[in-house]
Design goal:
Layout lengths: L1 H17 L9 E2 L5 E7 L11 E7 L14 E7 L7 H19 L11 E10 L2 E11 L7 E13 L4 E9 L7 H6 L2 E2 L1 H5 L2
Antiparallel strand pairs: 1-9, 2-3, 3-4, 4-8, 5-6, 6-7, 7-8
């Protein structure tokens, strides 16, 4: 529990530094049981993701509890100056940077060599300007188990014609895609009208 509190403070740090206006950022439709953080991009823990904007991230209730069906269940959106259509390579490279950087700052055992994150995505289809991907992320869980964890992932990459930007929405869970938690995950939607009008 002490670790979770420390990490919550670290993640919240970006929220307070970025300014009070972030309280108004609400890129996704999600009920009040999901925790919320707004993090500035470039990420302080992964500065090599060289874009400007912000991340809206939602945590399922119980995401930090190993025995919960919601363990490691989260959704995030990157609203940034992404003007080129993202490819599989874009997502694989940047998700590696994201999790490698995050786990490095979360880890408290400074003598530990943290295993690198492995990522694999497949592009599925493009429909009405939205391209979908599915895949897996294998990363070191520095938050709770201190072991490698395999996450199932879906990505919806939206194209906003007005701003000529791409907005990716990521959903993560270690549960199989047939598990009931994915119904909850898929109920969280991007507020396309709000996002694409800004």
């Amino acid at each position: 529990m002490k670790k979770i509190i420390i990490i919550s403070i670290l993640l919240s740090c970006s929220f307070y530094i970025y300014g009070q206006k972030n309280e108004e950022i609400n890129l996704m439709q999600a009920d009040s049981t999901w925790g919320k953080e707004i993090i500035k991009i470039p990420f302080w823990f992964a500065p090599k993701i060289n874009y400007k904007g912000h991340e809206d991230i939602r945590f399922a209730k119980g995401w930090e509890e190993i025995d919960s069906a919601s363990f490691w269940t989260l959704v995030f959106v990157w609203d940034m100056n992404l003007n080129t259509k993202p490819t599989i390579k874009f997502f694989e490279d940047n998700i590696k940077l994201y999790f490698n950087g995050l786990m490095k700052v979360v880890n408290e055992d400074k003598e530990l060599i943290i295993p690198k994150t492995n990522v694999f995505f497949l592009e599925n289809e493009t429909k009405n300007g939205t391209t979908t991907f599915t895949g897996t992320v294998e990363t070191y869980d520095a938050f709770t188990t201190k072991k490698m964890i395999a996450l199932q992932v879906t990505i919806e990459s939206y194209y906003c014609k007005k701003t000529k930007r791409y907005i990716p929405l990521f959903r993560f869970s270690p549960k199989d895609f047939k598990h009931a938690i994915w119904k909850e995950l898929n109920n969280i939607k991007l507020r396309t009208t709000t996002v694409c009008d800004n």
